[in-house]
Write a structure and sequence with these properties.
There is one protein chain. The chain has 98 residues and is an alpha+beta fold. Helices cover 24% and strands 34% of the residues. It has helices at 3-8, 61-78, and strands at residues 21-25, 32-42, 45-55, 81-86. β2 and β3 form a beta hairpin. The longest helix is centred in the last third of the chain and has 18 residues, at 61-78.
Length: 98
């Protein structure tokens, strides 16, 4: 979480910990691009879990990728673990196995 948000919520300094990124490719409802779950931590453990459902309105999958990348990137930089459900190939989203 960004430093000012951590202060606003009364959270302690950011933890030095390895972030986790989990991706599961599976069939989703036709209007759903992805479901993104963010798990935020303090030194005491899990602080908050948020879930974001990215839905298609008039956008194509290619048009949704920048919004998706921003959410995932900011969450990881802010210290969250990220779990993603999508029917898009992870490689097309810029996520590759190591």
């Amino acid at each position: 979480m960004m430093k000012w948000l951590r202060k606003l919520f009364g959270m302690k300094d950011e933890l030095e910990r390895q972030r986790m990124l989990f991706v599961s490719k599976r069939e989703l409802p036709e209007d759903t691009f992805a479901v993104v779950r963010l798990s935020w931590f303090t030194k005491e453990g899990v602080y908050d879990v948020s879930e974001i459902k990215l839905i298609y309105e008039d956008e194509t999958a290619e048009e949704m990728i920048p919004q998706f990348a921003m959410i995932v990137g900011e969450a990881l930089l802010g210290g969250a673990d990220v779990s993603i459900l999508t029917d898009i190939d992870p490689e097309l989203l810029g996520i590759f196995e190591q």
